[in-house]
Structure formats: structure tokens, C-alpha cells
């Protein structure tokens, strides 16, 4: 691989990007990270932020002119052959309250990135979609061939809308699109999510951990190291068709919020008690139980190294150290 | 029904609206038609435009302030209990060329209507979605439970994006959402579509009808009278769940472009010859063959009065008269 091959990673200074960028550098690539630093931070990238093959640009890819300028900068470095689109709102309740949030950060980022890819002739898109596009289908197995897709949050809606845009772009001008439907992902640098939330709550009120909902919600969790490995494995496949849709996740059925809360307390504040709320939904847009099928991913010969419980256990320890507790 | 019950029909001065509004008036409703007249026209509504129970507003519902003003006007007439969202770009190739077209006319209209429905407490949405959300799934039966949904045009993408938004809104603040996945619909007042296109081409060049593609594309067609009847039948059902997704279409497998071309020529210019193009796609975003399942709709006890061939035959005659040929 020539040194002049460039990956653009949108939202690359966030949680996923910080774990992906080092892997792209290992391939010999130059990486242009574009991030508006609304949730991401150059600090997340640590020492790689100063790697000469990393270019950091603070810009909002929901803005057309800023996105074009970012692509011009990338093209001046070398041949840009792929965009990793990781930019999104990650605060689901905020997006339910105000639809403008997911519109701008989750939908419009995809829209403008696709316009720039067409203008600059960038052929491949790897998109961080979400299991939230499935909505609340109860006990049904959520595999890639199921429908109808009825997301219950604006976050899920704008992820599905982004998939739809990317699919149309594949027909019209892209060479390849990978739509990665993420599960709940844990690890560091943690910027949001249930583990960071619990750790921070215990720091604020050491005697009690207040949990939204009754704790029976059950979800599958993947460690970010496995997530990145899965995406790279799918990207390396020579597949037929222009659009690949794949659920990424562990092979188990997940763990409950109660188990997570108990694990965080045991690691951070063993003396704290846990106070549960009512109902099995934490907030509008939260899905109580997930039966998330990763059969397709497994059929590609890939399995995660860590199951949900192991991923959570490792991430709690990583986040506790990150937060200095 | 009180005279003060109001339906808002967005895009109501277009082809579908002109056929729907009279049926809503028959229910005793007041109807507020909002249309930007980009493709719609008050002329399409004929004598009902002057009915005292019809309020016509020229406004673009992709604009937030204009939409809020429209809803204020509707609320001043009576209790607004439903929105029919028929506004969309209908020029699929234009939307493939420039993604801003479907973004504004198909996506953003839904986005702003939903914001206004929340603000004004309007509970029910009836949305004109499309079979285009399925993309090109080959010979597979396109039923509502199939996935993944991979539209191949920005039109299809923004229709799917609109479904997704409406689904999230149902979870958060709406009472009921009907997502009607339209087939190809024919009838008058024709504003676009293959029949009007063929009739107009023959008026311009009476000796030959040039057809995009080789004529083997096969699609199902529904007459607009049946489409409106189906939507009203689904709306009248007392269903469980907040979101209904239903394919609307005839029960047959459709007719070919060749058959349509021959039928138009026979009615309009019997001496004209037909010149076919290459390939079985007319344009990017066109799906060559559709196996569109309407089993769900039939399970509700509804079937169309006209099959594809009958619908086309009637519509050719209606359009020929509309165009004065």
C-alpha cells in the first residue's frame, strides 16, 4: 500500500474512531480525522494525534462547504479511497426531545459526506449504523432480512435514513457500501453510555446507584476492540453486490441492567446500594429486550473474542481507570 | 362528525390529493389543502377548490415557519385530527442527479410536518410511502416483513427515511401512523408518469414513440380510485399497535412497458411505430421487475376493483381526454 492512500474518518475523534484509527495506520494508510469536537476530542486519540500520517481537522461534516474543504485537504495528501462515517449524535433522549439534534448530527452528516464522495470520486463508504434501526420487535430474532424497520427513536430513524441514502448512492456512484449495524459497544475512551453513567453517578453519590427502569432490560454488548476487528474483517471480504448489511455483536443474548449495575458497584463502590426505578424501559427510544442475530457475521467466519459479560467486565475496569476511581 | 373536524392534506393539490379530498369532504370534514404548487395546482381540484369546507394554502411544508402558520390556520377552523402527507418530489431521475431535490421535497416535508404535529397536538398521520423503499430485490416477493430495505434512488431513500421518522414519532407523541406503500398509480389529473409521458411524446412526434429501455420492465399499476379506497379502508380499521405498514397494489403481477406503449399507441396514434431502447432499466433508480405482495392488504378484506391492465386502459383514456387527444 502506497503511503498516499488516505482514509477519511468522520467523527474520528470519538470513542470508535480512537480505536479504529490506529488499525488504519497499521495498514500503512494516511488518516484524515474530521470531527466537530462536540463529543469527540483530540485527547481521545492520545499519541496518534501527533503521528505524521494523521491529519486532524476540526469541522462539522453536516456543513457542505466545510465538508468540501475537508475532502480537498484529503485529496491534497493522496488518493482518498474510503470514508468511515462514525459521526452521529449519541444522546438518544436528547434526540427524542428535539428532532433537530439527530437530523443535523446523524442524518445531515451522511447526506453531506455522500455529496462530497460523489464530487471527489471517493468510492467506498463504511457506515456506523445501529441495531436501533430495528425498533421494538419484541422477542423476534433481529436478523438483516427482517422487516418492517420501525425505529422508536429519532436516533434510530436517522441511522435508518442514512442507510437508505447510502444504498441509493451505491446504485448511483459508489463502488462499495458497508452498513455496520452496531450493538451496544463498550470500552475506552468512554464518552457516553451506561457504564460511564454508572461510574460517574457513584462518584457523585457514593452511597447509592440510581438506575432508570427496573433493571430487567437485557442487551448484548460488544467490546470496541471486537467491533473494530469485525468491521475490518467485513471490509476485507470480496463480496458480491455493492451494499453489505451486517449486524455486529456478540453471539450471546446479553446481560441485564441489574447485572451491569451490580458489576459496576462491585468494582467501584462495593458498599453502595442499588435503587431501581419502574418499568423495563429506561427512556423513550429504549428497547427493553433484544434478540440480536449475528448469524450472518458468523457465517463470514468471524466471532468476537469477548462475550457480553466479558466485554462489560473489561470495560468497567478500563472506564474506572479512565475516571481515576 | 362535527363540521369542525379538520384534515390537513399536504401536497393536496396534486394527483393523489385531487382524488382524496372529495372523499374526505364526503365524511363531513373540513379539508385544509397545503401545496407549494411546484407540481400541484388548484386546477387539479376542480370545483371542490371553491367548496366552503376546503381551505387552500400555498405554502412549502419543508419550511418550518410556513408549516407552523398552516397548522395555526387549520386549528382556527376546528379540531385537526389528522395529516395526510402526500407532498413529495415525483421526478425520480431529477432526485438521482441532485440529492437536494428529494431531501427538500420528500424528506424535509415529513420532518417539518412531524414537528408541527407535535407542537399542535395533531394525533394521526397517513403517509404516502412507496414500493421504491424496497429497492431491487430481484424476483423475491416484496412483502412488509422483508429486509434489508435498500432503495436504489434518492426518492426511495427519502421515502424510507420518512417512514423511519414517522415510526419514531409514533413511539414518542403520535396516536396512529399509517404508512401506505404505493405502487405505480395511474389516473387523472395526471401530472407525471409513463402514461402522460407517452401521450405527450406522441403529440410531439406523431410517427414514433421512443421508449426508454427494451420494454420488458414489468410493473403493477393501481388506479387512483382504488388507491384512495384502500387507504380509507385501512384508516377505518381498528388495529393494534400505533404503526401500520401496508403495501397497496393490485393482486396481479403487472404489465410490461411494451404492453403499455402498445396500448397508448392504439388509443392515441394507431399508425405510430414504437422504438425501444436498450436494457431493462429506464434510468438509475428504476427497478426492472417487481413482485409486489399485497397479501396483507387482502387479509384485511380489501381488493381493488381494477387489475393492472384495466387500470392502465382506463387511465390511458382519461389522460387522452385530459390532454385533448
Automatic annotation (TrEMBL), chains A, B:
Residues 8-249 form the NAD-dependent epimerase/dehydratase domain. Pathway: Bacterial outer membrane biogenesis; LPS O-antigen biosynthesis. Gene3D superfamilies: NAD(P)-binding Rossmann-like Domain, UDP-galactose 4-epimerase, domain 1. InterPro entries: Epimerase_deHydtase, NAD(P)-bd_dom_sf. Belongs to the NAD(P)-dependent epimerase/dehydratase family. This is SDR family NAD(P)-dependent oxidoreductase.
Amino acid at each position: 500500500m502506497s503511503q498516499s492512500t488516505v482514509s477519511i474518518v468522520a467523527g474520528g475523534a470519538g470513542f470508535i474512531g480512537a480505536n479504529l484509527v490506529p488499525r488504519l495506520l497499521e495498514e500503512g494508510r494516511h488518516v484524515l480525522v474530521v470531527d466537530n469536537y462536540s463529543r469527540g476530542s483530540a485527547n481521545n486519540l492520545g499519541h496518534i494525534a501527533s503521528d505524521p500520517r494523521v491529519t486532524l481537522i476540526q469541522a462539522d461534516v453536516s456543513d457542505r462547504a466545510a465538508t468540501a474543504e475537508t475532502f480537498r485537504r484529503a485529496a491534497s495528501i493522496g488518493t482518498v479511497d474510503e470514508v468511515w462515517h462514525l459521526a452521529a449524535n449519541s444522546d438518544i433522549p436528547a434526540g427524542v426531545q428535539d428532532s433537530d439534534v439527530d437530523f443535523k448530527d446523524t442524518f445531515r452528516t451522511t447526506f453531506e459526506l455522500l455529496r462530497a464522495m460523489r464530487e471527489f470520486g471517493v468510492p467506498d463508504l463504511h457506515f456506523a449504523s445501529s441495531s436501533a434501526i430495528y425498533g421494538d420487535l419484541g422477542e423476534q430474532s433481529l436478523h438483516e432480512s427482517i422487516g418492517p424497520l420501525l425505529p422508536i427513536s429519532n436516533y434510530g430513524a436517522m441511522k435508518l435514513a442514512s442507510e437508505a441514502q447510502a444504498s441509493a448512492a451505491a446504485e448511483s456512484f459508489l463502488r462499495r457500501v458497508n452498513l455496520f449495524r452496531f450493538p451496544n459497544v463498550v470500552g475506552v475512551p468512554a464518552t457516553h453510555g451506561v457504564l460511564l453513567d454508572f461510574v460517574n453517578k457513584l462518584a457523585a453519590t457514593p452511597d447509592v446507584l440510581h438506575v432508570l427502569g427496573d433493571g430487567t432490560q437485557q442487551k448484548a454488548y460488544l467490546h470496541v476492540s471486537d467491533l473494530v476487528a469485525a468491521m475490518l474483517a467485513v471490509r476485507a471480504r470480496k463480496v458480491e453486490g455493492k451494499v453489505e448489511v451486517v449486524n455486529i455483536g456478540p453471539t450471546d443474548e446479553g446481560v441485564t441492567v441489574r447485572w451491569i449495575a451490580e458489576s459496576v458497584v462491585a468494582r467501584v463502590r462495593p458498599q453502595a446500594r442499588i435503587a431501581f426505578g419502574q418499568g423495563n424501559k429506561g427512556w423513550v427510544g429504549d428497547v427493553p429486550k433484544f434478540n440480536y442475530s449475528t448469524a450472518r457475521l458468523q457465517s463470514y467466519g468471524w466471532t468476537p473474542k469477548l462475550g457480553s459479560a466479558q466485554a462489560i467486565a473489561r470495560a468497567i475496569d478500563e472506564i474506572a481507570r479512565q475516571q481515576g476511581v
